[in-house]
Write a structure and sequence with these properties.
This protein has helices spanning 22-73, 77-123. With 128 residues, it is mostly helical. The chain has one domain (21-123). The radius of gyration is 28 Å and the shape is rod-shaped.
């Protein structure tokens, strides 16, 4: 006997044919999206912080370069040495931040791809 669709109880489990129900598919999709947000959001926030730090250091570097120009024009050797060290430290910080940004971005892209693959697999018929 065939049970009409409206008469079936949807438990959210797999149908007898082995396919997952729409309800179960939505539940799994929601779980993947929630997990993705928990993983990606902190990475995205860290990227914003690092980008802001880079911008701050670049502004500082511009100010130091301006100060170096003034010290050079004034032939102020002590200031030139001090500013030169500050420029070197600032540039090192910028380089370090760019390396960190590259690593975080790479991790973010890898994780996003993993979650996208999981979502794509969920959409493929017959995989579950």
């Amino acid at each position: 006997m065939v049970v009409p669709k409206y008469g079936r109880q949807d438990t959210g489990e797999e149908e007898s044919s082995g396919k997952i129900t729409k309800k179960e598919k939505r539940r799994r999709r929601s779980a993947i999206i929630t997990e993705r947000a928990k993983i990606l959001k902190p990475l995205e926030e860290r990227i914003v912080r690092v980008e802001n730090d880079i911008e701050t250091h670049e502004e500082e570097l511009n100010e130091l370069n301006d100060a170096m120009l003034e010290a050079s024009q004034a032939h102020d050797g002590k200031s030139i040495v001090k500013i030169s060290q500050s420029i070197q430290n600032c540039q090192s910080a910028i380089d370090r931040l760019f390396n960190e940004l590259e690593e975080i971005t790479s991790t973010l892209n890898e994780q996003a791809a993993v979650f996208q693959k999981r979502l794509d697999q969920l959409d493929r018929p017959g995989d579950f």
